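Hi R.,

Here's the chain you asked about this morning:
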Amino acid sequence: MMTDPTPYDRFRERYEGERVPWDDPLPPPEIVALAETLPPGRALDLGCGYGRVAIYLARRGWSVDAIDFIPKAIDIARQRAADAGVADRVHGHVASAADLPFLQPPYDLAVDIGCMHSFTEEMLAAYRAELVRLLRPGGQYVLFAHLRDEVVEGEEGPRGIPEATLRQLLEPLLSLERVEYGTTQVEDRPPWNSGWFWFRRR
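And here is the predicted structure, written out as tokens:
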């Protein structure tokens, strides 16, 4: 009997096949603009991929813990950090963003570009607990997520999270300061709804 691939399987296959459409040299402009307004501190890059956000922040003086559950992604992120001369400020960890007991607070900033929106309910609860534990009061959390009206079990296509679920999960503990909605298209797939969310730890 065949089983559906897990998120780990899907991402591992992408990295092994070098089908990584988010492999851009710079982070999204939303992150660049944010970094220009903040003094350097400690940051979390959750679902870091090849480390473009972590390396960009490190070049601006930040100390960054970069998290991804795909070993190849972390290997390449570490090499790119070394090539950029910031290996001492980018610390790559092979781990789930929902299970980070080896990290200690406080962090000033957490960034998630397309990681948590594919989590199960159980993982989302663990992710929130880690985020709240690690982020200092007043610290910022910036999230990019694929948004869906509802999640249909077994449906093919881009993963996503209903905005109502996202808000219910986070708003009791983090203040939502700003939202920007848009659409995103990856490769030849149809575009889907997406959003940038700027939160602050209560």
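One quick note: The longest helix spans residues 121-134.

Cheers,
M.
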